[in-house]
Amino acid sequence: MAFYDVIIVGAGQSALSVAYFLRRTKQSVLLLDAEKEGGGAWQHGWDSLRLFSPSSWSSIAGWPMPDTGEQYPGRDHVISYLRQYENRYGFAIERPVMVTDIEPVTDGFKVSAGAKNWYARAVVLATGSWRNPYIPKIAGLEKFTGQQVHSAHYVSPKLFANQNVLIMGGGNSGAQILAEVSLTAASTTWVTLQPPAFLPDEVDGRVLFERATARWQAQQEGRDAKDLPGGFGDIVMVPSVREARQRGVLKALEPFERFTETGVQWADGTSRALDAVIWCTGFRPALHPLASLGVVQDDKVLVDGTQATQMPGLWLVGYGEWTGEASATLTGVMRTARSTAAEIDSYLSS
User: Fold this and answer.
1) Does one domain contain both 256 and 306?
2) What is the pLDDT of residues 236-263, one digit of tens each?
3) Same domain, 288 and 327
């Protein structure tokens, strides 16, 4: 029977960050990763995906990301960095392991992947969100006969050349995918729930991290965050998006009413023929292993910091704001990873 002090479910940036801080303790740690190789969800990013910030601002704890000589490192460099990182620190990782269930037992938890089981005194869930892409329910969607792909599985604009393409979603993925698809598609239509909010051209991930820090400090002091660095926009104006702005393609339409077999239709009767839809509508936390615990409500778990309030011994890291400001980012997860490891060590030592 395999028994550890801590099992971390996942081996992406959040899981590695927690493992780094736990290696400073005497606790035995095992990471269970659903991927075949290291690199986390970055392995599934589209070909042209890049960070919003330089290498020096994109590291996880302990070892800085090597400089690429480029302003913003690409997907493959991040993957290489994470793989080198786990080798550098010699973490115990088993893969591929798709954890299907976590249940409380005497003195801890049983973690299951099909018929195989592991046991631990504490569990950290760091599965991210890539395995749970979100597509909103829109009338008539089941009738649409064109191609559909979520940004989770989007690779490059090649499949959409000379097609009429709808980009759904107003975040960074929507803007970046629109920018490159519009270069080769016959036409692109961008639909967003709210008018896109663009950050100033000079703002990148460095400012966004400063903003997250300002929010965190305000929370610690019990006050509202005001006058955040960089303003209150959402979309970072990376070079490809700035170039798309020059071409006049960053023009979003309000949501339509329904899908038809061949396209979409707005409430005023206006319609548009489409060959394909790219869903840039985000993700929900991949909390499937917690189903039997009964702690998941509205795609979240009630936490105090990162510890589940209804399940002692369970922590969740890297799921965005409800598990810590900027905790779903490379640099941003460091703060919550450090505090989580300290809490776990204290919990297991008491």
Assistant:
1) no
2) 899 999 999 999 999 999 999 999 999 9
3) yes
